[in-house]
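Tokens in:
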């Protein structure tokens, strides 16, 4: 009988262990969701590592306009990420950074590792079935990039590339690896409804601060902040 009870003890402990782990994760998740949206967690106005997510077409143009009005000494160093098939966006970002270098003799060097690429979750026209595999690859790549950069702030404005990166940042936040504040600015082209990326980040509460450029969007999505036209 004693031998049998000894074998039963580990079997009884396993559900208790898994239940305890689940409860701890749920408590941590609730804590992160409750504190998301609060001001940046810095004791003093020190520079914050900033990840900027670019997208093809108008996304990059809007984002670079936004970067132009940021406090450059506050949001630094800046890291730019674009899809692996989008080299033009990174070139434009590099030109912007080069234009910001003060012409005072001792020039600040632009580092190559500030401009990074990530696998796309889904190409235009790609079937949803095959996109499952590419999404998994993009997620793993996003986890690696987020761990490498360890951003304190993430700024994005709608390209699908931002979803795996924001999810990775949120997972690191829950795991206690790095607390990243996600700022999402919906594209000015979105007048009556959010983009798919915006809707996902809004509904999932992944974005700490959510900004829209049209008042009717703010009325439809009350947790969003109306900031007017940023172009």
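Residues out:
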């Amino acid at each position: 009988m004693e031998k049998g009870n000894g074998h039963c003890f580990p079997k009884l402990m396993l559900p208790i262990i898994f239940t305890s782990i689940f409860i701890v994760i749920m408590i941590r998740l609730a804590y992160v969701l409750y504190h998301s949206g609060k001001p940046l967690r810095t004791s003093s106005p020190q520079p914050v590592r900033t990840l900027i997510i670019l997208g093809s077409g108008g996304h990059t143009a809007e984002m670079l306009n936004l970067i132009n009005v940021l406090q450059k000494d506050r949001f630094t160093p800046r890291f730019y990420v674009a899809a692996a098939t989008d080299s033009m966006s990174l070139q434009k970002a590099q030109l912007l950074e080069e234009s910001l270098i003060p012409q005072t003799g001792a020039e600040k060097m632009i580092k190559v590792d500030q401009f990074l690429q990530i696998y796309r979750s889904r190409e235009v026209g790609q079937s949803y079935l095959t996109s499952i595999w590419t999404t998994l690859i993009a997620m793993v790549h996003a986890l690696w990039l987020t761990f490498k950069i360890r951003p304190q702030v993430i700024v994005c404005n709608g390209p699908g590339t931002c979803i795996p990166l924001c999810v990775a940042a949120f997972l690191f936040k829950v795991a206690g690896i790095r607390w990243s504040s996600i700022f999402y600015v919906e594209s000015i082209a979105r007048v009556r409804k959010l983009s798919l990326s915006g809707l996902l980040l809004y509904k999932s509460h992944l974005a700490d601060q959510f900004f829209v450029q049209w008042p009717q969007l703010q009325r439809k999505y009350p947790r969003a902040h109306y900031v007017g036209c940023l172009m």
